[in-house]
């Protein structure tokens, strides 16, 4: 929790004290998804039910990877299409239109994942539907494609020393006003094409209906409209994956390339650490303990760290930092991996909570990065919801330390700041994972872990035709994960193949990708290339905020000019360009009076700041007093700004649908979170995964597995029986407990290998660690039980178990 | 009474501020709205001089919040954050002071403050809410 919570409520009064209704009726999202390629239309319906003309300002989120390429205003039966222009010029055009009494529509980018839309001169009774179109290549690891749609902007922490952004307070750019009551909700219709290629579809965030229509799956929300208080996540599992592809698209004099690279290795140590790897690992965990992480988020993060730590091995150095307004670390320097260090770390971890206040991430980051890692390199794993407004400052720091440290991030919560946790990882050559509430943590952590340990494809080079401009400039690829690299060259033909070279796990590798010519004239590839190129340019502008248009440095001016040119050429929005549309009106429809400016509030992200007692008290206090304040602490003294609020009558009527469910109890109000459970459509897959995860949780820090009461059921037995059997193991130097551990371990290994071979990706690292432990324990002797070797006995036991259960 | 009138474009040119900024400053009440019909109205020299002053202070590195305070009260003070609470020696003890509002301060003995960082932060935040909503 931080000072931004002052803005929990806002008053919907204008300067004269008049109350206005929220002019946003609803948001409808329609998307076409083919593989990783998404074309999405976000439609917002505005209606002015007031007697005054209104200027509506709506700050809303988009996926940070979105390339915004269309903006239209539907007014009556006419459509006014927007064009991309330099940001301030676009504002002037909008402003001129509004001054003339015409309709003006403006779309600005505040962050790659935050947009502000202005609807100017909405006359009384008038309706307008604003449509924002974007294309996106969504992420995928080899198995799954993830379609992700944020619906609300969580309050961002603005550090006290953050300067104004081009004359505006920073909170102004990223924090919309927040309310607890909404007349508007979300409708969704996703068309997922190529039905036959799909193995499963599920959403951990919302209840969905899936219908079939020809070769398309239509996904809609189960409820007619949904609250806009959390991200929408759709996971699509395809039948065949992991194939690298290259495409060439002809557009005018240029050829655009899209290389979808998913590096695989022929035969190698796929996960876990390479034993001959000379580089020692120094892994530092950085856990966000600011107020916004309270509740489910911090619980998930702590669990993730625990899984990580248990997977580490001898030779690794590690440390755990936690931060909020200040920061703490478990050890003063990174320590070697050992049972006692792990115990200390897990102990400290269990006492950590999200009670450290604000999200002052720079201090711990500096502390971590200024210490040299073992062997001169560090891997930093940040677990956070990313709710900060000073992303650029952190990115600058990380960029500067690029050669010495790789940052991996785990984005957590109902509405994490995607731009932050993804861009930080990208900038440093690391990787990210996103864990939506209700999703299993372990598979993602293990996946990220194998990226940390096996590392990226280094010295990655795409051998393009001569004079091709590559975007992004610094491409990063990880084993089993898909990255897209684009190229543009003035040419009319393309080669049959494109070669990629790089080093993976210490070995030089070469991949040859056949190039497919795409006849799709509507192909998004040229725009995607442009957006990546723009991103590179935006990232090369040093300084606090890349939306600063006024720059004095000639070099920076040049970069800004390039961004604007590319943006206008390809008609894609950027930090320096906006979409503007003008609706010219007849004299009788022109707006005569000054329109009232109304900022549309967004819902507080579900689970934000937890439901701790202090948080509830603050909400209650604000509701009772109808406290007026702004999201940005900077202008707290200005209370005549029109905002939105709840009247006390409304408070009593607020029901279960909102983030906090309020009850009146003996005159006191208390709040509790409504319980939701994720809805999964897939069946058998989940069962096996659950069992494997249960088994993995039995692993001790040094590698052995210890079966407990619960796990004994997987072996169709009890601990007592197993103990009895363990006592018959023929090893004099071991006591009963050690024998039990030995038996447990071989049993678990046998079960995993024989029954859960399909889930190998999940357990391979842990098993390798266990095998090493076993070797040590057995001291190269064959340990016997009932005349057989332990392994043999376990194999037989498990095979019988499987046979009998079928 | 000064009769010189300026359009918004002229104002932008003379002050070096963008239209976006000027509209925003009107919205937050830093300057009065222009006279005349809607945004097409005209600004006078008093608008111009206020904006010139704002620009000057911005160029000196002041943030808007500080500029507003200055224009209101004639004092320049940068907003204090929790992290920058003052340490005040008092006899043999050290106390930490948090400024809730001008003239209102919360003093906590340092050892107590260190052990109850979260509670103290919350007290300060709640106190600020009380004071600000009363305005």
User: How far apart are the first and last residues' alpha carbons of chain B, in Å?
Assistant: 33 Å
| Shape descriptor of chain B | elongated
Largest sheet of chain B: 3 strands, antiparallel
Helix content of chain B: 40-55%
* Pair of chains with the largest interface and how many residues each contributes: A-B, 55 and 41 residues
Let me know the largest β-sheet of chain A: 8 strands, mixed
Judged by helices, strands and strand pairing, the structural class of chain A is alpha+beta
Largest sheet strand order of chain A: 5-4-9-2-1-12-15-14
Quantity of strands of chain B, as a count: 3
Spans of chain B with pLDDT under 50 lasting ≥5 residues?
75-85
The average pLDDT of chain B is 75
Structural class of chain B: alpha+beta
Put simply, the count of helices of chain B is 6
Q: Strand tally of chain A, please?
A: 37
Q: Shape of chain A from CA axes?
A: elongated
Structural commentary:
The complex is a heterodimer of chains A (806) and B (135). The two termini of chain A are 53 Å apart. In chain A, helix 3 (296-311) crosses helix 8 (441-454). Helices cover 28% and strands 29% of the residues of chain A. In chain A, the strands form 8 sheets. In chain A, strands 5-4-9-2-1-12-15-14 form an 8-stranded mixed beta sheet. In chain A, strands 26-29-30-17-18-28-27 form a 7-stranded mixed beta sheet, covered by helices on one side. In chain A, strands 19, 20, 21, 22, 23, 24 and 25 form a 7-stranded mixed beta sheet that branches. The longest helix of chain A has 20 residues, at 736-755. With 806 residues, chain A is an alpha+beta fold. Chain B has 6 helices and 3 strands, in the order ααααβββαα. Chain B has helices spanning 8-15, 19-27, 45-59, 64-73, 110-115, 117-133, and strands at 86-90, 93-101, 104-109. In chain B, a hairpin with a 2-residue loop joins strand 1 and strand 2. Chain B starts with 7 loop residues before the first helix and ends with a helix.
